[in-house]
Structures are given as C-alpha cells and as structure tokens.
C-alpha cells in the first residue's frame, strides 16, 4: 500500500489520511490541537521533551525562532514545511548538533527530564547518547564492518566484553529489521550494503546505545519506495520503545507515520497538533495552503 | 559561429600545447637522471655499499672506499625526523581540520605556512640552537630534529587536506551515537583517511630526505663509521645530500664520480618514496 501512497499526488492527502485512520484509528489521538503558547498540558500523553522559545541563528540569519513545542513519549512527531523553513535546523537543535556548526547560536530551552540540555553543565556527549539521530543520507562508518558499525557507540567508549556486544548487535539489528539480511556477513564492510540496508544499519547503530529519543532527518529521502516502506513500518515498531521526531518533505509520509505534526514556515512554527486534525482541519490558512499543495 | 573544422583545429592546438608543457616539465628530470646515472654508474660497486669513505688518500691510492656510513646515516637521521615529525604533524593537521573554531587555529595556520616557506638553512640554525649548543656536539639527533622541521608543515597540511576530504556526515554520525569529539576523529575519520595520511607522510619524508642545508651544522658530516651504533645518534653523522655536496666540491676526480653515485642512491631512495605514495593512493581507488 505504501508504494502506491508514495506515488499519490499531494492533492489526495485527505484520501490517504482516511485510509490510515480506517486502518488504525487508535494510533491517532482524537484530541484538539495543541496551542503553541501553552503546550505542556494535553491528553496526548506524557511529554518527553519540550522546547521553549527555541531560536537558532546562523550568524545573523535566523534558522528558526521562538519555537515552543512539546514532544510526547512514545509518539512520532513529524516536522513538515517547505525547503528552508527550519525543520532540520530545529531537529538538530534537539541534540545539540549545532555545537559544531560554525557561527550557529542557539537560544531558548530544550527540556529533557526537567533539565535544559543547553545548561552550561550539561554534557552534550551524554545528551546525544540519550537522543540519537539518523541522517538524510545513510552514514555507515566507511572502514568498519556491519558488526563494528552497530556496536561503535559502545565499543568506542570502552565496552569490550564480546558477549555484551554480540547481544546488543543482534538486538539492534533485529529492531532495525536488518538482522535476517546480514546475519551471515556481520564481518563484511557496512559500506557494501544497499542504500536501504545502509539506512537501516544507521538506525541499528543509533538504537544500539539505547536512546530515549530518535531524531530522523528525512531518513527515506535517498531511498527507493520499498526501502521507504520498510523504514516507515520500522518507525511504527520503534515507537513502542522510543520517542521519534521525523523531518519529512513527503506529506503522505507524515500522514502515514506520525501521531503529531508540526508545520514550519520561514523559521516559525505555524501550527502543531495531532496529525489527523492538522491534515483534515488545519486552523491556519498557511497550513491548509501547504498541505493542499498551493505552495511549497 | 565557427565551423566544426575550426573548432576541431583549436582543440588540436590546445592539446598540443598541453603535451608541450608536459614535456617541458619532464625534460629537466629526464636530463638530470640520465646525467647522474651516466656519470655515477661506474663508481657504484660492491665497495660503495660496504666501505666507509676515509681520507682522500684511500681513493687516490685505489684502496677500497665507499659510502656505507652515509647511507646508514641518512636512514637513521631521516627516520629519527619521521618519528619526531609524524605525531606532531598529524596532531597539528587534526587541529587544522577538526577544530576550525579553536582560538589557536588561525595562528597555527599562519605559523605552519611560515614554517613551510622558511629557508631550510634556518631550520638547521634552529636545531643548532636547540640541540647542538646544549649537547656541545654535532649529532645525528640534531640532524633529525632539523629535518623534522622540514617534514612538520608538509605532514600537517596533507593531514588537514586528507581529513577534510572525509564527508562531514561521518563526524555527525559519530557524535550522534554519543561519541566524544576526539573519539570520532580517532576512530571514524582517521581510519577513513589513512591512505591520505600515509601518502602525505611519504611525500614529506622524500622531501626531507633530499635536504642538505638543514644538516650542514646539525649532523655535520663524517668520513667514518662510528665506533658504536649510538654514534649515529649522538655523534656527527654523514648524510647523502650533504656528502654529495662535499664530494662534488672536493679536488679529487674519484670523489667526483662517487658524488654522482651518491646522487643515484639518493634519487632512487626519493623516487621509491614517491612511488610508494602513488601505489598506496592507487590502491585506494580500486
């Protein structure tokens, strides 16, 4: 089904959404939209992370400004919007990936477990361990085997015990739905896998360190429809254990995989709410224009 | 609008010009190699590789003489330089490539370029002040330090460029699984760049191996094998580029041809280094 969805044009969003809600209505909370100003209280569940007035600037250029957004536990939050709207910038602020971007400054707060991850005493390495990330392009470490790629996050910080590493490798690869395809060649290079497999390897590597949140930056944009479909299924499976924030250009994908959606436009959060509400009954005209394909 | 014929003619002319400039680049090298081999091949015999040079009378009286102490000395001094320069040079290269925002970075870049452009004789002077004066004697160690100054900026620069060639996404992927910055560089970026690192080091090595000026008042030169192996490190040591020079300006014809032979050995040594560098990079692409 997903393959056909991929090919459906943007104008048929509503139809797809109906298909989705028909199939699994329970997964989409039927609550009202979450207001941008007071996002903390809601019936959508426990808040895992929360941003307050988050602003990211590159030099004097504003990437995103004053974004306040709750991220709910064991839910999938999709960030949508036209190119350059700041969705990736926002995502990267959630695990301090901007620390290494030249000239990038982050103001505002990102709260994880009641603590701002931008506090001076917060350790970005530990934060990134808890908040993993999967990138647009698959990024296997070029010189490492499949096995070493998966356990890199453990092995390179000093966990050497083979039995532990073996267990983690198997668990992570199974979670990423890759184990059966690679179990006979764990020692062969990770870069030798196909694009879709490499991306699942990247997901397995992120899962191996047992993160609480996984950030995905257009994880399927460089993949074929079949691999895309596998990764979307995977996301549904993963949210049982982790919280997921996904940036996507593809609105069908947002509709298919997410519970909450946030629409960004020129660096601002325009609207956020449960995915089906936002897609079927958007409050803002800009949201409506975008999801019906009038711009973007 | 030019006709197809005109465009073809222009294409041919441009191609010929490129071939011509390639020939002009290669010609001096070919002339040097031929000249050196023709003049030096007669002096390349077994004794050349087994005997020490000794006094000029040996050559004049036809007694066995050679440059074994020079060849060993060259290897010892060059490898000492390598041992000193590689860790520091690669460290500086990592700093240049991986920590562009560090406040020391701009200074390091300028200093590195300055060191690279500095006359080699001044590097010899520096080693003289740092090592020869305190030790109270010329030594192979001082020569090694002087050559390390030649290698350092080259290694730093090639390290920087080969690390920069590794996509930034690899670093982010490493950080995203909670690795500290230094671990990301050491375990994911450096292994990916290892061919570039080895090539850069070999190029620096070959370049330093051909330098005579920094060795004039550091390793100084010696006509004899040392009494003890330590002599190659702690006493004045002979090296090929410098021996080539002193043989060439000597008043003895036999020494002149030995100088040409020394040039052959040095050329082969340097060409082997470059060939190894080429071989390693070729392996990477296949």
What does this structure look like?
The complex is a heterodimer of chains A (296) and B (286). Chain A has 296 residues and is of the alpha/beta class. Helices cover 36% and strands 23% of the residues of chain A. Chain A has twelve helices and ten strands. A six-stranded mixed sheet of chain A has the order 6-7-8-3-9-10, with helices on both faces. In chain A, strand 9 and strand 10 form a beta hairpin. In chain A, helix 5 packs across helix 6, helix 5 packs parallel to helix 8 and helix 6 crosses helix 8. The radius of gyration of chain A is 19 Å and the shape is globular. The two termini of chain A are 26 Å apart. The relative contact order of chain A is 0.20. Chain B is an all-alpha fold and 286 residues long. Chain B is 75% helix and 0% strand. Chain B contains 13 helices and no strands. In chain B, helix 4 packs parallel to helix 7. Chain B starts with a helix and ends with a helix. The model of chain B has no long low-confidence stretch (mean pLDDT 92). The interface between A and B is medium-sized, with 28 and 22 residues. Chain B: This is Phosphate transport system permease protein PstA. Chain B: It is found in: Cell membrane. Chain B: It comes from Natronogracilivirga saccharolytica. Chain B: It is a multi-pass membrane protein. Chain B: One of its GO terms (molecular function) is phosphate transmembrane transporter activity.
Helical/strand content category of chain A: alpha/beta
| Helical stretch tally of chain B | 13
* Major pleated sheet of chain A: 6 strands, mixed
Q: State the distance separating the first and last CA atoms of chain B.
A: 43 Å
Shape of chain B: flat
Strand content of chain A: 15-25%
Low-confidence segments of chain A, given as residue ranges, are: 1-42
Low-confidence segments of chain B: none
The general outline of chain A is globular
Series of secondary-structure elements of chain B, N-terminal to C-terminal: HHHHHHHHHHHHH
The radius of gyration of chain A is 19 Å
Structural class of chain B: mainly alpha
The count of β-strands of chain B is 0
- Count the E strands of chain A: 10
**What is the mean pLDDT of chain B?**
92
The largest sheet of chain A has its strands arranged as: 6-7-8-3-9-10
Q: What pair of chains forms the biggest interface?
A: A-B, 28 and 22 residues
């Amino acid at each position: 089904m997903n393959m056909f969805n991929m090919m459906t044009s943007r104008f048929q969003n509503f139809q797809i959404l109906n298909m989705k809600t028909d199939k699994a209505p329970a997964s989409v909370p039927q609550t009202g939209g979450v207001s941008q100003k007071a996002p903390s209280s809601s019936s959508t569940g426990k808040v895992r992370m929360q941003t307050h007035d988050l602003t990211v600037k590159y030099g004097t250029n504003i990437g995103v400004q004053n974004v306040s957004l709750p991220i709910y536990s064991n839910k999938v939050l999709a960030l949508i919007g036209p190119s350059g709207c700041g969705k990736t910038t926002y995502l990267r602020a959630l695990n301090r990936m901007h620390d290494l971007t030249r000239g990038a400054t982050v103001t505002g707060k990102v709260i994880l477990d009641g603590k701002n991850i931008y506090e001076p005493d917060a350790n970005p390495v530990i934060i990134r361990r808890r908040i993993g990330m999967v990138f647009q392009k698959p990024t296997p470490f070029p010189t490492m085997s499949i096995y070493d790629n998966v356990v890199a996050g453990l092995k390179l910080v000093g966990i050497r015990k083979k039995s532990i590493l073996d267990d983690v490798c198997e668990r992570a690869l199974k979670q990423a739905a890759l184990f059966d395809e690679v179990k006979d060649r764990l020692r062969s290079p990770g870069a030798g896998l196909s694009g879709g497999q490499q991306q699942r390897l990247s997901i397995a590597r992120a899962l191996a360190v047992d993160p609480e949140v996984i950030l995905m930056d257009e994880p399927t944009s460089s993949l074929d429809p079949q691999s895309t479909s596998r990764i979307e299924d995977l996301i549904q499976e993963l949210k049982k254990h982790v919280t997921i924030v996904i940036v996507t250009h593809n609105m069908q994908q947002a509709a298919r995989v997410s519970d909450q959606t946030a629409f960004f436009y020129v660096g601002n959060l325009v609207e956020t709410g449960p995915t089906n509400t936002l897609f079927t009954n958007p409050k803002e005209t800009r949201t409506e224009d975008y999801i019906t394909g009038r711009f973007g | 609008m030019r006709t197809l014929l005109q465009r073809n003619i222009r294409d041919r002319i441009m191609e010929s010009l490129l071939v011509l400039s390639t020939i002009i680049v290669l010609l001096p090298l070919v002339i040097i190699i031929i000249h050196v081999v023709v003049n030096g091949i007669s002096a390349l015999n077994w004794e050349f590789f087994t005997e020490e040079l000794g006094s000029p009378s040996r050559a004049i009286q036809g007694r066995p003489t050679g440059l074994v102490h020079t060849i060993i000395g060259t290897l010892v001094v060059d490898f000492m330089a390598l041992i000193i320069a590689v860790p520091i040079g690669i460290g500086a290269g990592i700093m240049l490539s991986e920590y562009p925002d560090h406040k020391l970075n701009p200074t390091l870049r300028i200093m590195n370029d300055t060191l690279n452009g500095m006359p080699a004789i001044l590097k010899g002077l520096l080693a003289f002040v740092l090592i020869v004066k305190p030790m109270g004697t010329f030594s192979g160690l001082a020569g090694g330090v002087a050559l390390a100054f030649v290698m350092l900026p080259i290694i730093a620069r090639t390290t920087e460029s080969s690390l920069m060639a590794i996509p930034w996404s690899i670093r982010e992927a490493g950080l995203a699984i909670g690795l500290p910055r230094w671990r990301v560089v050491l375990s994911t970026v450096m292994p990916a760049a290892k061919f570039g690192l080895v090539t850069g080091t070999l190029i620096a090595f070959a370049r330093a191996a051909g330098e005579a000026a920094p060795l004039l008042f550091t390793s100084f030169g010696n006509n004899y094998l040392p009494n003890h192996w330590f002599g190659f490190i702690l006493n004045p040591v002979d090296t090929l580029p410098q021996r080539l020079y002193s043989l060439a300006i000597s008043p003895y014809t036999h020494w002149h041809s030995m100088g040409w032979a020394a040039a052959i050995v040095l050329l082969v040594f340097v060409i082997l280094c470059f060939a190894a560098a080429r071989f390693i990079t070729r392996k990477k692409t296949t």
